[in-house]
Amino acid sequence: MPPRRTHEHFNPNVHGARGLFAFTIFVFHVVNSGLSTFAPLSTATGFFLTSISEYGVELFFCISGYVIAGTLRRARGPMEFLGDRAIRVYPVLWASILVIVALGMATRTHGFENQTALQLLTELPANLLALPGILPLDNIHPAAWSLSYEMAFYLVCAAAWGLRRRFGPTAYRLIVPVAAVLIICYPRGALLLAGMMVAEGWPRAGPLLRLTRHPLPLLLLFLLCWRTIQSLSGPHHIVATTLLQWAGDGRLPLALLAFTAAGLGFRGIVAGHGVLGVLLRSRPLYYLGTISYSFYLWHPIVMSGIKAVLLHGHILQNAGIWAQTLFFVVALPPSLAVSHASQRVLEQRFAAWTRRRLRHTPPMPQPAALDPTPQHHLESA
Question: Is it the case that residue 297 has pLDDT exceeding 90?
């Protein structure tokens, strides 16, 4: 992709999708909390249907692939691109990891029961660089595995750019096999490719383009297919399986169907089609989209603390089948508050200070926090 500056307008549908997908992950952590809930939701079928919210992360990958396609065009070079990604990703990640470490060492819970200072010092640098996930290393932050996928994606993009500058089109003979191996080993990362395909205009015409008018059922189809792949992968989590393993049974056809449905559904989101398009442009989801990255990393930490307090006070035990609902209601406001502060302080102010210090020019400004119908902002990463 040639480096060039463009002026693509901010897409409120994509921004609202950030908020929706981040919220689904919050819902999954409520559903997967092990707390009592209503009988229909406690059945195997009920849990199967409600736990599909876990895969909002994969749909986030669609957004990343879509946004990075534009970011690559606007960046001056591969190193500037990587610098912008580091400033975007690391401050919130580092702050949340350090909080987890401090609380874990203080309370000796959540995997820190027998953690020594030497073990922590050996694990911490890799975690601060977002290596666990792609690499088989212990992950301090349970949600940070996806950032490892993102960073690997950024490195592949930057390497492709640099190699193309040096070797021309023949560079793809080197980079395409590497990308193919990564997708085979880490199937969840294929959704990054789906986002890039949408950014390049896929699908352009025909029956597939007409299907994009109905993004909601397409995204639900993706979630159901992906959840079925997880069921067929048991007892292993989908993150520990590969496309080679999927090729031996019905998981590979399901993966192809899921990939197509996610790509077409996301294309419909970009265009703002259907009822989902109206929902994504709403003020609440626009706000959630603005704080979505901080919300993604902070809400598991806040929820863990809230759950511990409620259990210690025997509040959740006494709530009966309302325990999950109560947990949702009590944990959401502080999760939003912490995420709001993180977005303002770390994503905006600290990032701006870092760019000034490094004399780094961002490819675009961040959107306003609460304006639901922006007209002049550029697409943000």
Answer: yes
Q: In whole angstroms, how far apart are CA 243 and each of 44, 123, 157, 183, 255?
A: 26, 29, 22, 8, 9
Question: Angle at the Cα of 222 (from 220 to 223), degrees rounded to 5?
Answer: 65
Please indicate whether residue 188 or residue 112 has the higher confidence score (pLDDT).
188
The enclosing H or E element of 36 equals none
Total residue length of the chain: 381
Question: Per-residue pLDDT tens for 43-92?
Answer: 888 888 888 999 999 999 999 999 998 888 888 889 989 999 999 999 99
| Global confidence as pTM | 0.90
Q: DSSP class of residue 2?
A: -
Q: Give the whole-angstrom CA distance, residue 291 versus residue 136.
A: 29
- pLDDT score for 362: 66
Question: Dihedral (C-alpha) 365, 370, 371, 372: value to the nearest 10 degrees?
Answer: 110
Give the position of tokens 């780094």: 360
Round to whole Å and give the CA distance between 176 and 155: 13
Q: Which token pair is 133?
A: 């996930």
Using only the alpha carbons of the chain, give its radius of gyration.
21
Residue 37, sorted as left (phi over 0), alpha (psi -120 to 50) or beta, turns out to be beta
Query: Mapping DSSP to helix (H, G, I), strand (E, B) and coil, where does residue 350 land?
Result: helix
Long-range contacts of 221-226 (CB under 8 A, 24+ apart): 221/257, 221/258, 221/261, 221/265, 222/55, 222/58, 222/59, 222/258, 222/261, 222/262, 222/265, 223/52, 223/53, 223/55, 224/52, 225/254, 225/255, 225/257, 225/258, 225/261, 226/52, 226/55, 226/58, 226/258
Q: What values do phi and psi take at 132, rounded to 5?
A: -60, 130
Q: How far from chain centre, in Å, is Cα 199?
A: 17
Domain segments of the chain: what residues?
12-358
Longest dimension (CA), the chain: 67
Instruction: Report DSSP letters for 262-319, one per residue.
Output: HHHHHHHHHHT-HHHHHHHTSHHHHHHHHTHHHHHHHHHHHHHHHHHHHHHTTHHHHT
User: Within 10 Å of residue 364's Cβ, how many Cβ atoms?
Assistant: 20
CB 91 within 8 A of CB 351: yes
